[in-house]
Amino acid sequence: MAEYDPQHRHAPPPVPKETAALQALNTIIQLHFEKTLEKKRSIDLQKKQLHKLTQFFFLFLALVFVALTSGGGRLQCRHCWVPIALLSLASLAFYVSVAQTLRCINGFKYQRRCHKLTLGLATEKLREMKMRIMTGAGGGFEDDGGEFEIQYQEPPESYLGKFKRNWALHFGFLILIYGFMVSASVVILCF
């Protein structure tokens, strides 16, 4: 049996600069692709939660209006403040929940967009490097200063306008529903 001789250690062969750069870019691409998928799953989960919350809210509204219409004359016009107060509290709780859920959804969408932009930049850089290798211009790697890092990309400020429109649509709809609920309860009880 041969003894271990520390003088005869085999050093791993040096990795060419091109191979190291390609491996680094592939790792960056894989990371941002996985993050993009993770954010997509998070967005889908939040949307399901928002839909479930909306269903429960409309079910509650239906129960309130059934109770108002089948009150049997017990509730009169002077009592209209009771359902209005109940509807106002329920609407406030619903609005706060929707606001929080939309905030989470918009945050995940923004992060997903950042990862997609970074993924696109890394993919383009990888494509350029592969073209250099295939054309034999591998010496161009020093042009990058030996740095193969891809900076985290963020969308332009105009991208945030999309979220403001989304908020405006949701809360416009919620205010419209609240106005309808209050006016319907007054009409049912007073006329």
UniProtKB/TrEMBL annotation:
Domain of life: Eukaryota
Protein name: Uncharacterized protein
